[in-house]
Write a structure and sequence with these properties.
This protein is an alpha+beta fold and about 625 residues long. It contains 16 helices and 25 strands.
Length: about 625
């Protein structure tokens, strides 16, 4: 892969703010650079749409789609976006710089993972997806290549380029089926409507790959793989790894059910089941069993497992791994009082009775660490007991309803309080229609004795209001953008050279000042990049007369400066250019370059004067 063409970016400062340091990676439609944000003094990653895709509507829409999707999200397991720029000749997204590798790279190096380590990563992905799904965003391209694994073991979900976003134009059939075939859901592979269940299927495939080291469906043709996703039943993961707990196998196969409704109800529900099996690996779920939705009062945390990447591994890392194995062996040698007759007791008491076990595990782990003489962090399984006195509140579906006082009172009577409302400009002309809710409709939450209400935040439509476009001429573009957005307009910026408008100031708007628009409409602002500097080669003026020299310079958009006269007794040279201040062929800027010349002036020889060819030049300023 030729990376030399990206060298032109290195060392440059983008938009006067981002100093480019190095090329990080190259993708199918974009490339990523590491840079320093000179304003915020932080390292960032800049994703730039490749030049050949500028003007490609589908590629540009996917690029813009990613920035819109991530801008709606705020979660520790989702990459953050800091800035977006959409120019006619360049489009880029500025995001947080992630110091790590993709989960795909990690799996390639390690092969199959210990199932608890895989569960640790999968649960983080599910938490990120749960947050996205509550905002109405479906990722639709979940795969290890789009998951970053940091040195700390933290997961970051990236690349929302083909995400399904609420209140946007319907995607084409091509877009529906675009994901990577090895991880794509049956409904997406067949071009059907996708939902949160589609992301869960992809997570199931990743979980399968992580614990077995192989993909469930492989063939020579991508089309064949896609058809296998639609029609074939995967082999059980335990066929490849017999020692896998039965509960882990159940979770993976349930996530990979062909019928979306047969999968987990939500990303949170799947994460809870995984956390249950981590706490009690011997447990086997009943076919109909699935934990209730998160109630806000109970938290289960699975062990934090340090990633084992070869080039990251220090001696401390190796000592840590040895200590971890010693603890696992110690636990394995202790008999588990789990039998057919008392399985139900274990399940019923696992939340209230785990604390002594955790204390013992922690104490044993510390002893091992001391014995090895290392000072690294240890793994803790923490369980917070569920408050026994609580009332289950079902959250109604609010999306699509009009937000008004009547609805507010209805919710309050059900012990649900709208904590905050945010008006959002969109294509819906009706104001106050709810378009997102922070807690999914149909889910349940527990209202404990110390709580008065279950609190929810909602986004509502701004509605359509008439706006008269103000005159933004001779206005700095950031100030103009802020003013127009405050009016409820969506602003797109384009940069052009202008010989008359200062750099960074508005040339014009589209629609123009005085036009009528509606809130939520898109307005284009055209911003000056200053006067375009064009280079020209200086023509030869030698042996031309003064008038010809001036005409020739004007033709090249150059200016004639001082004209000096040099006497000669050769009448044939009279009036011709003897020399020019800038040599022929030199590249200079149009309109701003001045060329001086020296012209011969004939003077006959007088008998009383010495016979000299030339005398000192006489200077005449024609400027």
């Amino acid at each position: 892969m030729d990376k030399s063409k990206y060298d032109v970016y290195i060392g440059k400062v983008l938009d006067g703010r981002y100093k480019i340091l190095e090329l990080v990676g190259i993708g199918g439609m974009a490339f990523v650079l590491r840079a320093t944000d000179l304003v915020m003094n932080r390292t960032v990653a800049i994703k730039i749409l490749s030049e050949e895709f500028n003007g490609d509507d589908q590629a540009e829409q996917r690029f813009i789609n990613e920035s819109k999707a991530v801008a709606m999200l705020s979660h520790k397991n989702i990459v953050n976006i800091y800035d977006v720029a959409i120019y006619a000749d360049m489009k880029y997204i500025v995001m947080e710089y992630l110091d790590g590798i993709t989960l795909k790279e990690y799996l390639t190096r390690k092969g199959k993972l210990p199932w608890k380590e895989a569960a640790f990563y999968i649960c983080q992905i599910l938490r990120a997806l749960d947050h996205a799904h509550t905002k109405g965003i479906i990722h639709r391209d979940i795969k290890p290549q789009n998951i970053m694994l940091l040195r700390t073991g933290e997961i970051k979900v990236t690349d929302f380029g083909i995400a399904k976003i609420p209140n946007t134009e319907p995607l084409t059939m091509t877009d529906k089926a675009i994901g990577t075939v090895y991880y794509i859901s049956p409904e997406q592979a067949s071009g059907k409507t996708t939902g949160c269940y589609s992301d869960l299927y992809s997570v199931g495939v990743m979980f399968y790959e992580a614990v077995t080291g192989i993909l469930p469906f492989v063939a020579t043709s991508p089309v064949t793989v896609a058809m296998m996703q639609v029609n074939d039943i995967p082999k059980s993961p335990s066929d490849h790894v017999p020692e896998l707990p039965a509960g882990v196998v159940q979770i993976i196969l349930k996530a990979m059910e062909k019928i979306p409704e047969n999968r987990f109800k939500s990303a949170h529900a799947m994460a809870r089941v995984i956390e249950e099996i981590v706490q009690n690996p011997d447990y086997v779920f009943k076919p109909e069993e699935e934990p209730e939705e998160y109630n806000g009062t109970s938290t289960l945390l699975i062990d934090k497992i340090k990633p084992d990447v070869d080039e990251w591994e220090s001696q401390e890392d190796k000592d840590y791994a040895n200590a971890q194995r010693a603890v696992e062996q110690k636990l394995a040698s202790t008999p588990r009082p789990v039998t057919k007759n008392n399985k139900k007791k274990v399940k019923a008491k696992k939340r209230s009775g785990m604390l002594p076990i955790v204390a013992a595990v922690t104490f044993a782990f510390i002893l091992v660490l001391v014995g090895l003489g290392i000072a690294v962090g240890y793994q803790v399984v923490q369980i917070i007991s569920r408050t026994p006195e609580s009332e289950t509140i079902e959250i109604p579906v609010l999306v699509g309803k009009e937000w008004n006082e009547q609805l507010n009172q209805e919710l309050l009577s059900k012990k649900i309080k709208i904590k905050d409302t945010k008006k959002v400009a969109n294509e819906n002309e009706t104001p106050n229609i709810i378009i997102t809710q922070s807690i999914s409709g149909g889910s349940t939450r527990s209202l404990t004795s110390d709580m008065k209400y279950i609190e929810i935040t909602i986004d509502i439509t701004m509605g359509k209001e008439e706006i008269i476009v103000p005159n933004m001429s001779i206005t700095e573009w950031r100030e103009a953008k802020a003013s127009l957005e405050k009016l409820g307009l969506v602003v797109i910026k384009y940069d052009y050279f202008s010989p008359t408008v200062l750099n960074g100031y508005i040339i014009s708007t589209e629609p123009a000042a005085g036009a009528s628009m509606m809130s939520g409409d898109t307005i284009k602002i055209y911003v000056s990049k200053g006067q375009e500097v064009t280079k020209v080669a200086v023509p030869s003026l030698m042996n031309k007369n003064e008038a010809e020299a001036k005409r020739l310079l004007t033709e090249y958009n150059l200016t004639l400066g001082k004209v000096e006269y040099k006497t000669t007794n050769d009448v044939s040279k009279d009036g011709l250019v003897e020399s020019q201040s800038i040599k022929e062929g030199m590249l200079v800027s149009e309109y701003s370059t001045i060329v001086d010349i020296v012209v011969y002036k004939y003077e006959p020889i007088e008998a009383s004067q010495p016979n000299t060819e030339e005398s000192e030049p006489q200077v005449i300023d024609v400027g």
